[in-house]
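Protocol step 4 of 6: structure prediction from sequence.
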Amino acid sequence: MWPAVGLAFFLLVAWLLSDYAKTIDWDGVGRALAGYSALTLVAAAGLAALSHLTYASYDLLGRAYAGHDLPARQVLGVGLVSYAFNLNLGSLVGGFGFRMRLYHRLGLRAAPIGHVIVLSLVTNWSGWLLLAGTAFAARQVPLPDSFALTALGLQALGVAMLTIPLGYIALCYRSRRRGWLWRGYAFRLPSGPMGLAQVALSSFNWLLIGTLVWLLMPRELGYGTVVATQLSAAMLAVPTHIPGGLGVIEAIFVASLGSAAAQSEMIAALLAYRAVYYLLPLAFAAVLYFSLEAAGRARRRSAESLV
């Protein structure tokens, strides 16, 4: 039943997006894209590369947490591949599927792979909670007229969100109970410094993403507003299960900031963002994936020759 419901929802979203696309001034979008300077695009590519490398370093924390001894270059390679495919094909394919396959091919057992994946998930969303909670509490997010939550309600939500990453750091430092069991899965609480590093690293990565989007946006949009809107859009796109939140992120930006800047320029900025942050890293990750597969095959042949 659920696959049919998911397919129906996807088709509905696709129909709404195709209908919405008819209202866009595509000539204006083309002019805005052509207006980007080479310096701006190079800076955007640099931010994208740094962000992907930062996300891949979550797996270095995972290596320390799980206690495996794969070389750092291979760990970063797996992180880069999984993140690029995660963005473009969804978390089940990238965040889980590619990590499971590549780490298994490189010799890791299921338990440490699971520890790496869980730590990466906690790392990613802990930083999001810290930044989004701060943005909501500071009333940095512009609310559409149709939004059900009031500004005060959103501020209260932001304060509540902030308690989660801060409480997590305090728990990592202070809790005497280090082992937890949830639905049969044993979870060991990271050390205090590692918990702090998780939140700091993830916050840095989300700021890199927001800065990249702001760099491409019309100049009349403030930095804090763009970053806060990007953080909101990233979470609101998750329940749709559409890879990369395609169309959803664009709709949220237009609904929130459509009165503050030209719609065609915002669409152009988000298209440029997708090209630089999603598509170019995917091409690189495809090449890197086959390199890691080759390393896995070489490792197995070496192990078989010793038997």
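Step 5 (inspection) to follow. Strands lie at 179-182, 185-188.
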